[in-house]
Write a structure and sequence with these properties.
With 331 residues, the protein is mostly helical. It folds into two domains: 206 residues, Rossmann fold; 92 residues, Tyrosyl-Transfer RNA Synthetase (Orthogonal Bundle). The protein contains 13 helices and five strands. It binds adenosine-5'-tetraphosphate (AQP). The site of adenosine-5'-tetraphosphate has 20 residues, from strand 1 and helix 1. Homodimer.
């Protein structure tokens, strides 16, 4: 059975982007794979987090994942900092990866913007830690949003260089698994920017804990253009906001964008937004309700994560012990 690894940063409440780009596929992959799901708090602190908020967000993320259908008994769910193998292997990978490779990473450029010099060294080497997350389990399938493809390619380059440098076939080749529809969900305020849980504007995103009235308001306020919806997908060209809303509807209703336009082409945004609000509420509301029920018992959530961390360590420690032996560390 193939082993899957995937992670999400506890930097805020998971958005619809996180859900459609990642979590929903994690739930599906649970059948037929051995899954390791991780709340990547080491990644989260590459940008400063308020310590109390980080703890709260970690519990909140765990609750959203469980409410979405992650099964912590058949699979493994934990927070990254509780398993030291991630940091140990990341250091080795910091020494394997080349600066030129990291310089090409577009996510660092996007996150750091023009103020590059003032960002943490951790943000720069983030892809090395991500490679370590995956390789510490020798996972071979990694479900991610489209924005993470470049990091998966880098993880393969690091693994190949490690294998070459130490003359062994130790780390396997990994495969990014990107869902075909809604692989990239865009901001509701700007169709050219991805929807993000840490975007300063709450109106830019649907959070997986939003209540029905908040969803309706955000969709009503979502940016659009003055034209009605086209009847063919080609007509979405150059209309990023319209494309995003059609893509969202398609992903939620399990239709292709063309099938959405077959139903709604020629409509103005008023009626289409109403239809989109209905499918959104149908999907988000049950998850939001279950999340709030789970959050009422933080002790239970922490136990789930602790148990997951123990089981994760059992898989990762022997792999990272062996990587350290190959490197030449004395034990
Ligand atoms: N807008 C998106 N569309 C599709 N997939 C997305 N993902 C994130 N945003 C979108 C996918 O969600 C998984 C977890 O993401 P993450 O939390 O590890 O980091 P991120 O990509 O940086 O997500 P955010 O929401 O934008 O977080 P912040 O605001 O903290 O930077 C990943 O598989 C990602 O592809």
């Amino acid at each position: 059975m193939q082993r899957v690894f995937s992670g999400i940063q506890p930097t805020g409440i998971p958005t619809l982007g996180n859900y459609l780009g990642a979590i929903r596929n994690w739930v599906t992959l649970q059948d037929g794979h051995e899954c390791v799901f991780c709340l990547v708090d080491l990644h989260a602190i590459t940008i400063w987090q308020d310590p109390e908020a980080l703890r709260a967000q970690t519990r909140q993320q765990a609750a959203v994942l469980l409410a979405s259908g992650i099964d912590p008994v058949r699979h493994v769910l934990f927070n990254q900092s509780a398993v030291s193998a991630h940091a140990r292997l990341a250091w080795i990978f910091n020494c394997v990866a080349r600066l030129g490779w990291l310089n090409r990473m577009t996510q660092f450029k996007d996150k750091a913007g023009k103020d590059r010099e003032n960002h943490s060294a951790g943000l720069y080497v983030y892809p090395n830690l991500m490679a370590a997350d995956i390789m510490a389990y020798k996972a071979t399938r990694v479900p991610v949003g489209d924005d993470q493809r470049q990091h998966i390619e880098l993880a393969n380059d690091i693994a190949k260089k490690f294998n070459h440098d130490y003359g062994v076939e130790f780390f396997p080749e990994i495969e990014a698994f990107v869902p075909p529809e809604a692989a990239r969900v865009m901001s509701l305020r700007d169709g050219t920017k991805k929807m993000s849980k840490s975007d300063p504007s709450e109106q830019s995103r649907i959070e997986m804990t939003d209540k029905a009235d908040a969803i309706a308001l955000k969709i009503r306020r979502a940016k659009t253009d003055p034209e009605p919806l086209p009847s063919e997908v080609d007509g979405l060209e150059g209309r990023p906001e319209a494309r995003n809303l059609v893509g969202l509807y398609a992903a939620l209703a399990e239709l292709t964008p063309q099938q959405v336009l077959d139903r709604h082409g020629g409509e103005g945004f008023g009626p289409f937004k109403q239809a989109l609000t209905d499918v959104l509420i149908g999907r988000v509301e049950p998850i939001a309700k279950e999340t709030s029920r789970l959050l009422a018992d933080p002790g239970h959530l922490e136990n789930v994560l602790r148990d997951g961390a123990q089981r994760a360590s059992t898989i990762a420690n022997p792999i990272v012990d062996e990587a350290e032996r190959l490197v030449g560390f004395l034990r």
